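ok trying again, last paste got cut off:
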Amino acid sequence: MITTVIFDMGNVLVHFRWKELFHEMGFEGEKFERLADATVRNPIWNEIDRVPYTDEMMYEAFVKNAPDLEPEIKELMGDRFQGFLKKFDYTDGWLDALKSAGYRICILSNFSKKAFEESRELDYVKKADIAVISYQVRMIKPDPAIYRYLLDTYGIDPKEAVFIDDNADNIAAAEKLGITGILFTDKRSADERLLELGVRY
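nice, full thing came through this time. structure:
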C-alpha cells in the first residue's frame, strides 16, 4: 500500500522555462546556444545544485565559461533569474488533494541555493511534509545516497513510496532501492498511474 508520494520539482511541479526566458531576454541563434552552454547546459549547473554556491561564485563560474558574454550573464543573474521558474496551474491542487486523502507528501529535488531561496514560484513547498533539497544535503539525484538519506532520515518504507520525476535516470535509481517510480510526462498520465497503484484522492 502506498502511503508516501515523493515529488521531484523541476518540470513536475514547476516549469523550468530557461528556453522561454532566454527568448524573452532577446537571446537568439548563436548567442542563445553559447549562453546555454555557459550556464544551464554546463556541468557547473548540476554542481550548483550540489554545493550551495553564493551568487558571486555562480556568476564567476558562468563568466569563466564565456567571458565575452559577461553582460548577458550579469543580466541573467539579476532580477531576470526569477523568470527561470513558473509554477504549474495544477500544482497546489494536486498536493492539497493528496494531503487531504491522507498521503504523506515529500519533495526530493535538485535545486540551487539561489533558485530555492529566491523564487516566488516555490510557495507550494510548504505544503510538503518533508523536503529534501540537494544543495542543503550536498547530494544530487541520481546518487543513491540522496534517496537513502530521505528513506533513513524520515523512516520511509520504500515499498510504501512512489516517486514522480521527469528524469529516467532518477527514476531508475529510486527503483533500485525498492521505490515505485513514475516517469512524469504529464499530470493526467501520472494520475492514471497513481490510480493503478491504489492511490486515490
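cool. Residues 55-65 form the longest helix (11 residues). The mean pLDDT is 97.
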